[in-house]
Design brief:
Elements (H helix, E strand, L loop, with lengths): L2 H20 L1 H4 L14 H5 L1 H15 L5 H25 L5 H25 L4 E3 L2 E3 L1 H39 L1
Antiparallel strand pairs: 1-2
Helix pairs in contact: 1-4, 4-5, 5-6, 6-7
Keywords: Membrane, Transmembrane, Transmembrane helix
InterPro entries: QueT
Protein name: QueT transporter family protein
Length: 175
């Protein structure tokens, strides 16, 4: 790994961990908005440095999780898969909207994996919502989905597009 890539990975790790540790009240519950997950789509732009950095940052952040080793390993592996597969998908599926497709994939991956193990850890009972009883697992998925949509799709996807545009524009002036 080049020193520039290593430096980028360290920055990603620090940003991810700091964002989670600074906002524990919204980062570690069934209904959560893990703002640091906005970094996941940046794996499309930066590749392996983002994959490594976000994975390490997730591990560091989840050392503070009230859900212990399951969240430490589960969350870390989830973000490893979401960033790595997202990066590879973006490289191999080049079509209009492919980045959005990747961001949606990352959102669903985080939703179903994290939502499932949080359901098991917490034991969410069936919950009435607007007069309808929602099974605990579905409530857990919906709680994680809402936050993942905000962080990955609403914040992260436009961030990745903006950073990519900036890097392309910068490259024109560097020559």
């Amino acid at each position: 790994m080049k020193s520039r890539d290593l430096a980028a990975a360290i920055v990603f790790a620090g940003l991810y961990a700091a964002g989670v540790i600074a906002l524990p009240g919204i980062s570690f519950e069934i209904i959560q908005v893990r703002v640091s997950d906005a970094l996941l789509p940046l794996a499309i732009v930066f590749g392996m440095p983002a994959v490594v950095g976000i994975t390490v940052g997730t591990f560091i952040a989840n050392l503070f999780s009230p859900f212990g080793p399951v969240d430490l390993l589960g969350g870390t592996l989830t973000n490893l898969v979401a960033t790595y597969v997202g990066w590879k998908m973006a490289r191999n599926f080049v079509f209009r909207g492919s980045w959005m497709f990747v961001a949606v994939f990352q959102t669903l991956l985080v939703t179903f994996i994290v939502g499932s193990y949080l359901y098991v850890l917490i034991g969410v009972p069936p919950t009435p919502v607007a007069g309808v009883v929602v099974p605990g697992i579905v409530f857990s998925w919906l709680g994680v989905l809402g936050g993942s949509v905000i962080s990955i799709l609403v914040i992260g996807y436009p961030l990745a597009k903006a950073v990519a545009r900036y890097l392309v524009a910068e490259a024109r002036y560097v020559r």
